[in-house]
Amino acid sequence: MSLQAPRGTQDILPDRTPRWQFVETRFREVLARYGYGEIRTPMFEPTELFQRGVGTSTDIVQKEMYTFQDRKGRSLTLRPEGTAAVARAVVEHKLLATGQPQKMWYLGPMFRYERPQAGRYRQHSQVGAELLGVESPAGDFEMIALFVDLLDAVGLRQTRVLLNSVGDATCRPAFTETLRTYLRAHLSELCPDCVRRTEENPLRVLDCKVPGCREVARGIPRIQDHLCPACRAHQDELRTLLDRAEIPFEMADHLVRGLDYYTRTVFEVEHGGLGAQSAVGGGGRYDRLIEDVGGPSTPGVGFSSGVERILLALEAEGAALPGALTPEIMLVTVGEGEERREAMRLARRLRRRFRVDLDLRGRGLAAQMKAADRAGATLALLIGEGELAAREWTLKTLATGAQERVPDRELETRLLAMLSQDKGRE
Ligand code: HAM
To answer: Which of 57, 236, 248, 374 is close enough to 200 for a disulfide, judged by CB 3.0 to 4.6 Å?
Structure first.
């Protein structure tokens, strides 16, 4: 039996990697303009980090982690998300003592044991950013603006920004109690998980996808009606900032996000072309997380976005995405032996400046010319007996069939001139 990639994972083959490189390049440009530095943390962390950071009553920690023991019996987990890992690294390296705010971004694979479907995988890639040390709504604003600008930079259009608040240590406990009282009156309509969540963490009922629970959630008390004055003022100022910058958003009562570290602001960006997994990404404020992983009390806010979903959304919009780069020059040998040796030498020389390809399997002239066309090359450089003897090369523009001879010492200059006329050269 032949082996296959694990369920819920995918190979990104060379014909599709240019799409990834395109979005990654755009992300890097925008993140640099915002002044964020890249952080790379390990793919696995102590399991306890996610229990403490993400929260033991979340689906991620209860059902979705790839947890294993190493040979010394330590419990490790493939990272299901990036924020807790960034918090751990910042505390471990005492970065908060070196200056605040700390502004960081990351891009890489995350692992969640979820039921795979379109837009949902067991290994997915996230681009994310975290801003540590900013308590004011300016931080929330910067994160939403950055997220919107990242999506804009890759050309995504049909997005909606959803906004809510989940309150803080002042108002959430009372709201949680109100929610619990409401849910206790509907226990018979809830799924077994939500019956448990009612006692453990009633906010999580709002995430449940089971139809009965969604029905109950429809009549649930609104957190917006229970925010304390400080949370309300924080939200009002954020809304003012978004309005001022003309970033459209909608308030979403039921948005609580599936991770426990959030305080106050939560947001998500949705895309209509994604079907059931409609969130391109999400984030929010997490003013307790740094403390929860053992650091000094420090506010934080951030977001992350699934790169696969960004690409799916772009494809749903019919966006023009780059394909594999074509060779600029195809070396074509007319004869055997010396011509082929010369082609190898010349290819290496020209590859310092140009995208060059050549036949490595000893095929004949006709097959080489066909390959040049099929590869989408701009020029063919012909190497025959006459060219070798005269130390000059025949350049053929494949689109027109026009040919010219160029002395060896002028080759690079002439190629640059010819290729710069060609739109394809970047
Ligand atoms: P999250 O909402 O769990 O948040 O994940 C962020 C995004 O990653 C989702 O909106 C989605 O686009 C993508 N994603 C998540 N799971 C999958 C999956 N199984 N398959 C494909 N894509 C997926 C977080 O992870 C937080 N760390 C975000 C954050 C950063 N909050 C503050 N800072």
So the answer is: 57
CA–centroid distance, residue 257 to ligand 1 (Å): 10
Beta strand 265-271 with 159-165 is antiparallel
Q: 309 CB less than 6 Å from ligand 1?
A: yes
Statement: the pTM of the whole predicted model exceeds 0.90: yes
Question: How is residue 224 annotated by DSSP?
Answer: G
- pLDDT category at 207 given cuts 50, 70, 90 is confident
Q: Ligand 1 within 6 A of 105 CB?
A: no
DSSP H helical segments within 155-281, as ranges?
A: 172-184, 192-200, 211-218, 229-244
**240-278 burial by CB neighbour count: b if 16+ within 10 A, else e?**
ebbeeeeeebeebeebbbbbbbbbbbbbbbbbebbeebb
304 lines ligand 1 (CB under 6 A): yes
Residue 277: predicted pLDDT? 85
CA of 295 to the centre of ligand 1 (A): 24
Indicate whether 349 pLDDT > 90: yes
- 3-class state of residue 37 by DSSP: strand
Q: Are 330 and 379 in contact (CB under 8 A)?
A: yes
Query: Rounded CA gap, 268 and 143, in Å?
Result: 11
Whether pLDDT at 424 is above 80? no
Query: How far is 188 from 181, CA to CA, in rounded Å?
Result: 14
